[in-house]
Structures are given as structure tokens and as C-alpha cells.
Amino acid sequence: MEYDMQVIDKAVSEELQKRVYSYLLNSRWCTAWKPVGKVSYVNYTPAIDSEVAYFRAMARPNFATFQHRAGFASDEESLKAHPVLFELWNVINSALGNQFELTGHPEEIPSDPNDPTWEPPQPVDTNLPQGWRVYANGQTDETQKRTHGVHRDSPFVNDDKFWTILFCANPEWYPTWLGDCVYYPDDVAGVTGDRQQYQNMNGGHNQNRNFAVGWANKIVSPVPGRIIAYDGRTLHTTHPTAAWCPVQRRVVAFRVSKK
User: Fold this and answer.
1) Which of 223, 220, 221 is nearest to 170 (CA)?
2) Residue 37: how many CB atoms within 10 A of its CB?
3) Domain at 5-258: CATH code
4) pTM
């Protein structure tokens, strides 16, 4: 089974894209080393700390990190605290026909449990579960970050209202820097025989991850300024950037639902 997707280019002005990217670099991010004994969290601000130099200067038996993340909002009201991202949201939603609202299935952002400021804001609508619905991902190179396991963003496989919208924020990118989003159909007929034998993470994100994965049929590159909107049930992953890529691939993610 395949689900709906839209890819839109040039809907966001270069001027706004530059402001968004600058905002991301001046925001606080969090990651963690892949466990070697006790989990060690790392908080940093890209515009101040050179994460490439910082991470490579630290000796680690296991050099891999988890996904780099920055959290912003739980709903549209809390997004107003980030005016440039609020502006971006309105431009993107307009390009998509204003059919969405920021009430989608939230994302969990693993972050320092000793730092309570990483808790997402409480939504204005008390019936809306608290959680990150606007956040940013930083995809590092293949020397630090393995490819994600194939997953869905929404665990509600019988509900078509939950979507994810990505905005590719880097103002400069090249095909050989990689970092592509890869999408897979459900393998209903069992053609590939792949039920994630090597990526069956038990119970992660309310999903058993024992998905029947078909052959990839869509590869979407992080073209600067690109909007990628897809049904949250779509099986997908993101490839690391190339070892020679000098920057992280940064995207702003919106977890939304249809009005």
C-alpha cells in the first residue's frame, strides 16, 4: 500500500529560508552519544559551538550519536514564540491549500532528563496531548550517524488525517552530499520478505516496528527550500549525509493533521 505525498519547490522565498536557517543555527540542540555504558547527553548551539570540531575532539569508543534535535512548539499558539518559524508555517500551509493544522501526532525528542527546560510547552487546547509538533532534525554524516530504521510517523494505520511536513532549511545543498529521504510501500503481498529482521526495535514510538517493507519507490533529495508533505503512515527513513559533507542537513518538521 502507498500513501499520499506532495513535494513542492520554490514556495518559500530565499530570504525567508535564510532567516529560518539562521534561526536554527542560533537555537539550542540536543543529541546523545550512542551508549557506551552510561548515556551522555550533549547540548549545544551551532552558531556558537562548532559541533564538528567539538564532537571529533572528544575521544569515544563508539563514535555514533543519536539524531540531533531542536524542539520548538506543541501547537500553533506556542509556535508564536518563534516568529520566523510561525511565518514559515503559514507560508507552507498556504502552499498546501491551508488544509492542515498543528494538531498531529507528536514526536518524542530524547533529551537530557536532568534538564526540565526540554519539556514541550503545554498546548492551549487541554484536550491536545502535550508533545513536540514543531521541531528540527539535524542529520549528521555517515561517520557519526547510522541510517534510521524504517518507520512510520503515525501509529494510527487506519486513520489518514495525520501527516508530517518537512522543510529543507539548508540554503546550499548538493546531490553528492546525500541525506535523502527514502520512502517505501507496505509489502502487503510479501514480495520482499522483509519484516525488518535487523531493525525490529521493540515497541519504539508506539510501534512494534515489525513492518512488512516493500522496495523503496521514492527517493526525495533535500533540495534547498523544498517542502515534503506525506501521510504519517508512510514507511520511510533518512540516509546520513556523506562523510565529506561539511554541514548537517537540517529540516524543520511539522506534525499536522487534516482540518
Assistant:
1) 223
2) 8
3) 2.60.120.620
4) 0.88
